[in-house]
Amino acid sequence: MLEKYFEDEVRDGFYVPSMIKRSWAVALDVLSEVDRICRKYDIKYYAEWGTLLGAVRHAGFVPWDDDLDIAMPRNDYIKFCQVAKQELKNGYEIFNFKNHDNFHHFLARVTCTSRICFEDKYLKEHHGFPYIAGLDIFVHDNVSRDRKNQEHCEKIAEYIITVADNIADGSMNSEQEKDALKRISQLCNCDVSAYQNKEEERIQLYTLAENIFAAFKDDDCDEMTQMMPCSMYGNHMRIPKKYYDEIVRIPFENTTIPVPIGFDAMLSKRYGDYMKLVRNTGGHNYPFYESQKKQLEVLMDFKLPQYTFDGKKAVRNDDAANTGYKKIITDVMHSVKEEIEKIGHHINNGKFWTDNQTEDIIKNVQEKLADIQQALIETGNLIEQIKGENTQSVKCIEKFCDTLYMVYQGNTYDITGEFDNLNSVIENEIIMRKEIVIMPYRAADWSYVKNIWEQAEKNPETDVIVAVLPYYYKEYDGSVKEYVNELNDFPEEINAIDICSYNLELHHPDMIYIQNPFDNENKAVSVYKEYYSDILKKNTDKLVYVQSFHLEEFSSNDERAYKNMSSYCTVPGVVNADEVYVQSDNMREIYIKKLTEFAGDNTEDIWRKKICVKPEWMNDKKETTSHAGGKKRILFYTSISGIMQNQDGAVEKIERVLKTFKQYSEEIEVIWCVQELVDAVLPSLNRKLYECLNNIRNNYMLEKIGHVYNDKDKKLLCSCDAYYGDTSPVVQEYRNNGKPVMIMDYMV
């Protein structure tokens, strides 16, 4: 898997940290192993729950989810559990209630390991992820056509499971246990015995409940369910078996995953408009490995290494030494001025060289003149090093040095007045000019600081330098894996340089803007130590961090989004910067809350002064832009969901829309995006409908109304000026960028 995959990423407005990506990668490895076994033994499986939704809507994980779920029909599940133990590669484990204590679930779990492991070999093989990760396998059982019989069996299973848990937990005395087992024996027409080991007794009863789940044969049923808990305790989830008549593979992250052919109807029944992004904050603790981490810390009686607050770095120390060239030049000019004042009354006296002066006095004046000249020559060299040749300052220094030489030879000049003129030139051309350094590291994020560069460029009294920061991908142990320098990927017109060619200490710019807030606190990438935020802060008068990603707005009640703030908010660049610019007032308040929780209640004032909302001029303007021929570009999105939910009228509606677009072809360019799943599954779902849609596409291309694409090229899809069509993950991107969005109504 490419190293770039493990970088923090914003997906559909949600921040996904590197550690989550690593857990995904391990889960995908486990999926690959399960897939290998299933292919070998002809075992049927398919994506389920959030994984199914993610596969269809995101072509991968739901961004705010961290687990992987599949399902199997009961017979396939039994077969898999039988062969998995000997087939799974070394180190992998399969858990179910029959083979592992304290696993009281009616499903199987396949994991990459049975324990947390920080060994080098293991971490190298598992993407630097030390925790237990894998996937859950849910079981689908047949549902009887006889509703009363089905409900009767469910009630018996409920009773058996309740008794099993109460016995194992010690909630029943021996008499109650005896009566309960007797009743179960009568209900199931079998002999159920008490065990001395109550966990073994629970397994016996769970197995009996599973047999009841699997009581109905394929030929007697039209529906399936996930019996526990979706068809018990008042729940009655039913899934038509015809949805699973055929299985198709669709893209999922860097691989493919099987999904039932009837996924659209199934997802629509569960979620309604399932293409609409709705953050799900329920379910298990997030991220799942956090509980493992806490257990490890308790067991080892120490905290795992993590970034901690340093109050001395959060607030600027004005005592820090400024060794920049402006300070050097200012000090030299001040010193020269003092020396000139000391000898000025001698030199300005026209009779000084002719009067009978002592040799010591003349020698002293000449030595001071030579020292002044040398100091100014060195200053001129420094200015040329920083500003290049032919500056007015260097010309004036050269002229003044000539004057000093003439005075040295015994001539009389008003060097005080000439020095004041030189000092004024240097002050205006060098000292008073602002120097701003913008320090991006990824070309893809340049748009977030582009307006800062443009604003600075317009100011004739400001020098702005774009100094690209190289970075490197990290090994699991933090060492360098691969260096990356994107200097050549930035626009030519900004004249970007490599930061390594820029002497920060010597320049000591007035302001530095940074986009990388991590220093070495990110699991995927880092920068050279000399460019950590605390070092940068010492070499500038103001360090500014600019949030260079856009998130869907959320509150601290959105536990998953708020939890992930520790990956980009409570990090060195934010803590150490003098100013931090975020996307909105709401985000500012959340940053302040998170940082205060991190650093202590007594630090809130620090963050209130430091965290700012981006002013309007700083935001990247997402104005409508003219494309080929000056036309506006419209994205027309057609999804498998939209087609399947409106089968009768879908073709007619799409034809009407395209006809309308054609009428305005002089003004607009249409990008028609047909979701990739349409071609993958529609032929199996509705061949006639697919052929009609294909005819429309062919005519559309022949008539050259616009262009047809699938949904793989997200960058292209997001480049349009407005959105029209079915709901899709791209909609949020348009809304975030302030572009018009209209969801198509098939009934109009």
Automatic annotation (TrEMBL):
InterPro entries from the UniProt entry: LicD/FKTN/FKRP_NTP_transf (IPR007074), LPS_cholinephosphotransferase (IPR052942)
UniProt key word Transferase: yes
Annotated GO biological process: glycoprotein metabolic process
Swiss-Prot/TrEMBL keywords: Transferase
Domain of life: Bacteria
One Pfam family named in its UniProt record: LicD
Domain LicD/FKTN/FKRP nucleotidyltransferase: 38-272
Record keyword DNA-binding present: no
GO terms, molecular function: transferase activity
Signal peptide: none
PANTHER family hit by this protein: LIPOPOLYSACCHARIDE CHOLINEPHOSPHOTRANSFERASE LICD
Protein name (Swiss-Prot/TrEMBL): Lipopolysaccharide cholinephosphotransferase
